[in-house]
Hints:
By secondary structure, the protein is α/β, with parallel strands linked by helices.
Amino acid sequence: MTGRTDSDNAIRPFRIDVAQADLDDLRERLSRVRLPDAIPGTGWEMGVPVEYLTELAEYWRTTYDWRVWERRLNELPQFTTTIDGQNIHFLHVRSPEADATPLVLTHGWPGSFLEFLDVLGPLSDPRAHGGDPADAFHLVIPSIPGFGFSNPVTERGWDPTRVAGAWAQLMARLGYDRYGAQGGDWGSIVSRAVGLVDADHVIGVHVNFMETASFGTPEEVGGLGPDDKARVERNMQAQTDGGGYFTLQATRPQTIGFALADSPAGQLAWIAEKFHEWTDNPKGLPGGAVDRDRVLTDVTLYWLTNSAASSARFYYEVTHSTASPERSPTPLGVAVFPHDVGPIRSFAERAAHVVHWTEFDRGGHFAAMEQPELLVGDIRAFFRELPR
């Protein structure tokens, strides 16, 4: 079942228009932030340092300007539509090339549709960015239910398979019969699910994140080569040292939601930590792998849409889903960035029809924001190999 039918097919233009009272409330809350104490001399080993958060929160309050970003975002073609009873917000950036390949891009957590701002132009209009017009894409960038303007969510069950069915219906509603899918983080899981539930219409799936630990037994892990063993060890260390957020959001998303929905400093710390830990960023934020204002725009989007609990519930839905993993026949391309969870190709090939694999020497979890040129080049190369 692909979910390619729905009773309400209306596509409604959307424009961001945040009430000034909401922005004033945010600044007022930031002016009276209550910070925790800290042991002198500690860095990031226990979490976000107080000094770091103090500076970033003050910049957010006094210097960052949401209205600048709101105007920029409103220059993009935004829409909403109802699918499976859920309001879905999405960008729809059509290429000037009439025969461009449709491509649905899916974000993850703590990201949003903002992740893709730097790849919109090169992917949709390669001719204007020094590329081959044959590599052009019509881009559809939806927000996962519970994230951003695809809110609120009023019922259980929005796991990756259900989201994939909604994306299939969205692409059909937009008139795209054959299309590709791409994503990182949860977007990679959703994109692979799109290739499974709508295999007759999906030409290929490209991901820049793929967790493969569950596809190999301990004995098989022990038999890996030294490079793959080292990758597994790094992944396990990252999970052991930094996996608390996952456990909390997967088991008690509503509880953490109270703290984050009521405290902008809490929401800032919860997200900024990931932009520090998951990026290829030796200098640390601000001014590192992802621009400080871009990070704050993402955090502000979570705050203004009150998405802390609803986005965390996606973890709960994923880990409590009864859907059984299936091997997708859809061609898969994988871009591996070194400062991210590193997949093992031999294990990945058990779960998917891997036809393209690229390993880069720089970049992290937020590839579209950190290394947009590398990601764009790999997406082009992958889809160039496929029949359209």
